[in-house]
Amino acid sequence: MYNLLNEPWLPVRRRSGERQRIASWQITDKPEDAIVALDFPRPDFNGSVMQFLIGLYQVTLAPWPESDWLERFTTPPTPQRIREAFQAFEKAFLLDGEGYRFMQDLSAADAEPKSISAILIEAPGQQSIRENKDFFVKDGFANTLCRSCASAALYTMQSNAPAGGKGFRTSLRGGGPLSTVLYADSLWHSIVLNTLPGNVAATVNARLFPWLTPMPTSEKQEVIIPTDVAPMHEYWGMPRRIFFHFSDQASLTCDVCGGSDTTLVTKYSERNYGPNYQSGVWKHPLTPVYVKDDMPRSPVHASAHCLHYRHWPSYVLPGGSGGTVPAPVVELFLSMRNRDLRDENIDTGDIGLNTFGYDMDKMKARCWYEGRMPVFNLPAEELEVYRRRVEGMIEAATLIGGNTVKAVRRAQFGRVESISKNGAIKWTLPKGNSDDAALPQSLTDAFWQYTESQFYRHIHQLRDIVGDTDKEIPLMRSWNDVLSRQAETLFDAIVDSEDYSRTNPRNVVLARKELYGMNRSKKIFELLNIPLEIHAFETQLITEER
Ligand SMILES: [Zn+2]
Fold it and tell me: CA-to-CA distance for 224 and 337, rounded, in angstroms?
């Protein structure tokens, strides 16, 4: 039988670049050439199986007090020791066989089998096949999966499940949650950074691994809440009742990784009305949550915009008054563990945050997004000021991004009604292009994207000088310049590419000048905590130049 604790189903990459397949217990072998990352051919598999591993080590190596964390980090257990710890859990990780199977439901076995391609999240639902709208991946593309890819696909589906039609439930965090996973210089270090201290030894039962019993179903909208399950069930939720059908046609190769296997998965069966996780009550260790009235609410979901740096404080800075709090593992790292590493002078290499998830539109995946964000540690007494400065920087960027859209619209479609003595212009815009109309997303996306690396550079420098006004002012002015220059570059690129017979050159000149002024307004200076005397002085210089 194929056991996910013992079979070498994990493709990994070592520091030297060497690639191989290992079993789950071999994460710590060959420390001189440590494993640095998972190496599946699909990024969604890498993101999801990383969570599988974090969950696995979280439950099998518990209990452990927080005071032990640093020793775990610096002194990994030997593979043999890990293997021993896994033994008690083996029966929960069988992928096949007659008995209970990992994240599968025996009672779905006799449902009509469908192609395994449908378990890959970008695969179209039945509805869209009928309507022939499956542009993302053609139905039938991945008809055969090796057991490694099938296992990864199964965990990916159960932990990200979108709405799937009547009674097909979403994942414990809803459809397409955002995950924020700390990364370090080795896979072992990354796993330890993402595990929480545990008080209770996990036991192998259905409160932790729901597939170890006839599954609770939800025909009558029955829901599951945290008190129904064991701690850390968040990693093992299974909203979908799935059952794999295996084939011994070893002549076939896997359509995802191109590898061979003695047994492959070509079909699976599925029934609806799987476990129905109550929304708004779960706190997943790896996902930031929206907070309302001091109560955690829904988990943040991945979207096209959730990885913009404007969300950086929400995912990475604890204790904010905003509507989002970082994931528990990130809060723990920033409040305690980062300091422990610094105090002990432990060279960890680069530590940061991987952020990823599916952007779901109900049943369909629009896109898989992933990105990286830096994490910093700051003494508690500096955190508040630092947060205010960073939030000011982001607000300034939001405003300047908006100014850019405004200026482009005015240059392209505006009519100048009047210009006052102090140079203020009154514009009129045709219907549908007013200042309040929806922003052209490509322009704002470009603005955020092109200023991102500079944002991280500036907040990195700010960390070392926060509270020192003499040093803060030039840094904030530099940020203002970065934003303003990017705004002007984008303005020029868009407006210059326009057909000049359609735009009025005078409007272009006026809108650009106005953009320059708006991006250096008092409001922007206030947001960046730059003294207004500087603003008054410079405005005077500009007026004199005129
Ligand atoms: Zn494969």
Answer: 33
Q: Name the average pLDDT for the chain.
A: 89
- Distance (angstroms) between ligand 1 centre and the Cα of 38 equals 14
**What pLDDT, in 10s, does the model give residues 204-229?**
999 999 999 998 899 999 999 999 99
C-alpha 146 – ligand 1 centre gap (Å): 4
What is the Cα–Cα distance from 394 to 386, expressed in whole angstroms?
12
| 3-state SS, one letter per residue, for 88-105 | CCHHHHECCCCCCCCCCC
Sheet with 352-361, edge to edge strand ranges: 179-183, 352-361, 364-374
Confidence label for 73 from pLDDT (cuts 50, 70 and 90): very high
**Dihedral, CA atoms, 50, 305, 170, 286, nearest 10 degrees?**
40
**Residues 369-399 as b or e (16 or more Cβ within 10 Å = b):** beeebbbbbbeeeebeebbebbbbbbbbbbb
Give distance in angstroms: CA of 150 to centre of ligand 1.
7
Question: Averaged over 171-198, what is the pLDDT?
Answer: 95
276 CA distance to ligand 1 centroid (A)?
Answer: 30
Distance (angstroms) between ligand 1 centre and the Cα of 483 equals: 45
pTM: 0.89
10-14/35-38 β-pairing: antiparallel
Spatial neighbors of 500 by CB under 8 A, at least 6 apart, are none
From ligand 1's centre to the CA of 386, what distance in Å? Answer: 46
The yes-or-no verdict on residue 125 having pLDDT over 50 is no
Q: What is the pLDDT of residues 280-319, one digit of tens each?
A: 899 999 999 988 776 767 899 988 777 889 889 889 887 6
**Cα–ligand 1 centroid distance for 355 (angstroms):** 24
Question: What is the Å distance from ligand 1's center to 145 Cα?
Answer: 5
Between the CA of 43 and the centroid of ligand 1 the distance, in Å, is 14
Three-class SS of 478-524: HHHHHHHHHHHHHHHHHHHCCCCCCCCHHHHHHHHHHHHHHCCCHHH
Compute the distance from residue 153 Cα to the ligand 1 centre, in Å. 10
Q: Would you give the DSSP letter of residue 334?
A: I
pLDDT of residue 132: 39
Pairwise CA distance, residues 78 & 80, whole Å: 5
Residue 140 has pLDDT above 70, yes or no: no
Residue 359 has phi, psi (to 5 degrees) of -90, 110
